[in-house]
Amino acid sequence: MRLARAGATLVRYPLRSALAIAGVAVAAALLLDMVMLSSGMRDSFRTMLLVRGFQLRIAPKGTLPFDSEATIGDATAIVTTLRQNRDIVAISPVLGAQVHLLGARSGAEVTSFALGVDGAVEGDYELERGVQVGGTDRAVANAAFLAASGARIGDTLDIVTGFDPQLRTYTGRRRLVLAGRARFYYTASRQPVLALPLTTLQAMAGTARRDRVSLFMARVRDGVDPDVVRDWVDRTVPRVSALSVASALKQVDARMGYFRQLAFILGGISLAVGFLLVTTLVTVSVNERIGEIAVMRAIGVSRAHVVQQIVVEGLALTLLGTLVGLAIGIVTARVLNGILGDFPGLPASFRFFVFRARAAWASLGLLVAAGMLAGIYPAWRAASLPIAGTLRREAVA
Amino acid sequence: MRREYDIGEQRVAAVRGVDLVVTDGEYVAIVGPSGCGKSTMLNLLGAIDRPTGGSIEIRGQDVGAMRDDAATAFRLRQIGFVFQRFYLMPTLTARENIELPMAEAGVASAPRAARARMLLDYVGLAARERHRPSQLSGGEQQRVAIARALANQPSLLLADEPTGELDARTGADVIALFARLHADGTTIVVVTHDEDLAHAAARVVHMRDGRIVDDPGAGAAL
C-alpha cells in the first residue's frame, strides 16, 4: 500500500513530477555520456586495433604507424626474420602512398590514399562487395573513392603515383581492375582510399620504395603475451619500433588523460545536480504535506513507514528519470559520434562515446542511490516533527 | 496531568493539573472557551503529546511515559482520532483511507477491504467507496474520517471539534453517528464548542484556564 500511496502522490502533482523526471533525465543523460566518453575513446581505439586480431604494429624506428612518411627497407628480409619467431603466426606488410586516378568517370581529378597490401593477410579493411586484392592488378576501394571517381566494380582504373613536378612525369602508372568495395578501419570516412597489391604499389613508386613498407602488422599466437614478442622484435630488428596494443593504449591514456578528467568532473557535477534536484523536490513536496504526515503519524503510521513512503517517491522519480536519461544519453552519444566522426583525420571506425553496459549501469545505479539518499533527510525530518504542534500549526495556517 | 510550553523565555501552562477518569463505554464532551486547554488535553490522551507533569493511564498503560515507537503502536491499536479538518489522505479513495490504519497494523488485504466496506456502510457511505476526498462533501469526509478512526477497533475514540467545519445539517448527521457509536459501546471523548454535540454526550466536562471547573461525573468516577 505504501508503494501505491507513493505513486498516487506523484500522480497528484503531475507537472512537478514530470519536471523532476525531466531534470533527473538530463542529469542521467549527461552522466551516462560522460561515462561513455571517459572510457569510450580508449575502448574504441582498442577495438579498432584488434579488429582483425593483429596485436603488434611494427613501424620505422622512433615513429608511430603512419605518423610520418618514413618506411622500412629490406622488408622481405625482415619478414623472414620475424617468421623465425614461432609465436608470430601472421605478418601483414603495408605500404602507404598517394595516388591519382586519371580519366575518372566523374571527370573530377581524384587524389587518393593508397595502401599496398597482401590480400591474403591484410588487416586494414573489411571487404563489403566484390573480390579481394590479388594478382598484380586487382584493387579494392572505399565508398568515398567510388563516389569521387564515379567508378564501378569491374572498371579499369588508370592509376599513377610519384609525380615529379620538374619533369611533369609520374614514377609509376598502372591499369588496375576495381574488384571490390571495402570499408577501411584506419582512414577517415570521407577520405578516398584504394588498396592494391603491395608489390604493384612498390613497383609503381620506383626505386625509392622498392622492397620497402610503411608498417608491418603481426598476429601473435593465442596465449602468448604480445609484449614479450614486442621486446623480441625490438631486440632482433633494431631498425624498427614494435608497438603492442597495450603499449599503444598507454600512449592513448597519456595523451587523452585530460579527456577522462573532464568526463569525470562533468559526470560528478551531473551526479551532484541529480542529488540536489531530488533533495529539493522531496523537501518541497514534504513541506507541502507536513499536515498529512502529522496525521499519518497521529493515526499510528510509524516514523519508519512515513520515511519509506517518501523515499520511495524520491526513488520512483529518480528511477523514471534515469530510464528516460538512459535513452536520451544513448541518442545524444550517437548524434555526437556522428558529428565528431567527421572530424578530419579521424578513422571512420573510431568512436568517442562507447556504451559499456557495466559502466553505464554502475553510474546510473549511483544516481538512483543518490536519489534515494536525497529523500531520507527531508523525510526523517518531517516524520520527526512533534505531531500535536504540527497539527495545531496546520490548523492555524 | 499538566502540560506546559516554553514560548520564548516564558513558560505557559496549557493544562494545569487536571484529573479526569473516563470509564469504558462513556461518552464525554469537554467544553470551554478557546485556549482553555481542551485540545491539549485531548492530544495528551491520544499520546500525540507528552505531559510535562502527572501521568495518563489508559487500560493500564502509562501513555505519557511511552517512547515514540511504543506510543505510535498504542495510537494505532488503541486510539481513534477524528479531527476538525477531517485530514483524509487526498490521494486515496474513501475505502483506502479507512484501510490505511489497518494496513499499518498488518491486516491482510481482503479482510481490511471487507472491514472498510463494513465501516463505510456503518457511516452511510457504502456507495462512496471509490470516491476521493475532493469528491466528497464536508459531512461525508468527516464520516469517512470517523470510519477511519474506528478501523482498528480502538478502545478510545477522540474527536477534536468534529462538527467545527460542518453546517448544521451535516453536523447533526455526525452528532447522530456519535450517538450511535456510543450506543454500540464505543468510548468517546469529544472536545467541542458545539452545544448540540455537547448535549448529546452523557457527561459534559467544563474547562477554563487549563483546569476542569465542572465535571458532573467526577464524583461517580472516583
Topology (elements, then pairings):
The complex is a heterodimer of chains A (397) and B (222).
Chain A: H1 2-12, H2 14-49, E1 56-60, H3 75-83, E2 88-102, E3 110-117, E4 125-130, E5 138-141, H4 143-149, E6 156-164, E7 169-184, E8 193-197, H5 198-204, E9 215-220, H6 226-236, E10 240-244, H7 245-288, H8 290-298, H9 303-340, H10 357-383, H11 387-396
Parallel strand pairs in A: 3-8, 5-7
Antiparallel strand pairs in A: 1-9, 1-10, 2-3, 2-6, 2-9, 4-7, 5-8, 6-7
Helix pairs in contact in A: 1-9, 2-7, 2-9, 2-10, 7-9, 7-10, 8-11, 9-10
Chain B: E1 2-7, E2 10-16, E3 27-31, H1 38-45, E4 57-58, E5 61-62, H2 68-78, E6 79-82, H3 94-104, H4 109-122, H5 138-149, E7 156-160, H6 168-183, E8 188-191, H7 195-200, E9 203-208, E10 211-214, H8 218-221
Parallel strand pairs in B: 3-8, 3-9, 6-7, 7-8
Antiparallel strand pairs in B: 1-2, 4-5, 9-10
Helix pairs in contact in B: 3-4, 3-5, 4-5, 5-6
